[in-house]
TrEMBL record:
GO MF annotation list: RNA binding
The keyword RNA-binding appears for this protein: yes
Quaternary context: Homohexamer.
Source organism per UniProt: Sporotomaculum syntrophicum
KW RNA-binding (keyword) present: yes
Job description of the protein: Antiterminator that binds to cis-acting regulatory sequences on the mRNA in the presence of histidine, thereby suppressing transcription termination and activating the hut operon for histidine utilization.
Pfam family, one: HutP
Stated name of the protein: Hut operon positive regulatory protein
């Protein structure tokens, strides 16, 4: 098997963000763990502007809770930074609107990726968007 890099970790984060249920999350988490990729996922929602800090906090807390990162400043900062990058990619679609969706986090050795899936709502006209951020930290 080829070594795992940022592409495979990013794919895992995106797939975690697109899971439909907790059961599907758990199944996918086990599949990825067998390949050496640690993963986590957490829901988010609310007014976009008011939710940005909560999304970043939820990402860091979920990553620590699921053992994706250690409780050290560098790991927490990497997840927060990757989450902020992912959010910035969807900002123009979501600004001023309500959002809901899921955050997917994945790590293999020094690669950490965070994917944020957004359902952006305005009346009955829903839009979807995915943002992706990556950071490298020492493992």
């Amino acid at each position: 098997m080829a070594p795992l890099g940022s592409r495979e970790v990013a794919r895992a984060a995106i797939k975690m963000a697109l899971t439909d249920s907790r059961e599907q999350e758990k199944e996918l988490k086990l599949v990825y763990l067998k390949t050496g990729i640690k993963t986590a996922a957490v829901d988010h929602g609310g007014d976009f502007i008011a939710s940005v800090n909560k999304i970043i906090e939820r990402s860091v807390v979920a990553a620590k809770r699921e053992g994706v990162i250690r409780e050290v400043h560098a790991d927490e900062g990497a997840v927060a930074g990757a989450t902020r990058e992912a959010i910035s990619q969807v900002m123009t679609k979501a600004l001023g609107l309500n959002v809901g969706g899921k955050i997917g986090i994945a790590r293999h050795q020094d690669h950490i990726s965070v994917a944020v899936f957004f359902g952006v709502g305005m009346l009955h006209l829903d839009e979807v968007a995915i943002g992706l951020g990556h950071r490298a930290v020492s493992s």
